Amino acid sequence: MSLRKSGKNPRHPRNDEACRLDFQPQSAWISNFEIWEPMPKKFIAYLSLFVPQSLLSTKYIVERVSLLADDPATCDHEWDVVACISNTVELQVQCRKCATYSEVPDPTKEEWETSHGAMEIPYPWEDKSRIRYYHIDDTIH
């Protein structure tokens, strides 16, 4: 729906085109994504942290992780043990900053037993020298 002001306003002498008002139905405002373009995607990703995840799509949650994560090639990794890999007897670690995965081969018996609760409660991994980094696109992760 479009409304036009006819004639000139004595307080604001402008031509007809300058005084034109365009109105769109509310559904057009919601579907019109142009209002969000000026806002950086990273800022919106931070705001979405306050939205319950049940209201967000899985696709967006994955995109949000990539928006908020650091670049793996330049990251100063801080690792958490997140799982134990039974078939190869390795610990899987994930960086808190860039969200990339790597592994710790040949864990001790104590480290292996401690890691069984890591999927529910990840814990920090301090010994960076034992981590075997993944190579993805000729970049060490």
Show the helix and strand layout.
Layout: E1 2-3, E2 21-22, H1 26-31, H2 41-48, H3 58-68, E3 79-85, E4 90-95, E5 101-105, H4 109-114, E6 123-125, E7 135-136, E8 139-140
Antiparallel strand pairs: 1-2, 3-4, 3-6, 4-5, 7-8
Helix pairs in contact: 2-3
Keywords:
globular, two-stranded antiparallel ribbon, 2 domains, 141 residues, four-stranded antiparallel sheet, alpha+beta
Overview of the structural elements:
The chain folds into two domains: 2-68, no CATH class; 79-140, no CATH class. The protein contains four helices and eight strands; from the N terminus they run ββαααβββαβββ. It has helices spanning 26-31, 41-48, 58-68, 109-114; strands at residues 2-3, 21-22, 79-85, 90-95, 101-105, 123-125, 135-136, 139-140. Helix 2 packs across helix 3 (58-68). The longest helix is centred in the middle third of the chain and has 11 residues, at 58-68. Helices cover 22% and strands 21% of the residues. With 141 residues, it is of the alpha+beta class. The radius of gyration is 26 Å and the shape is globular.
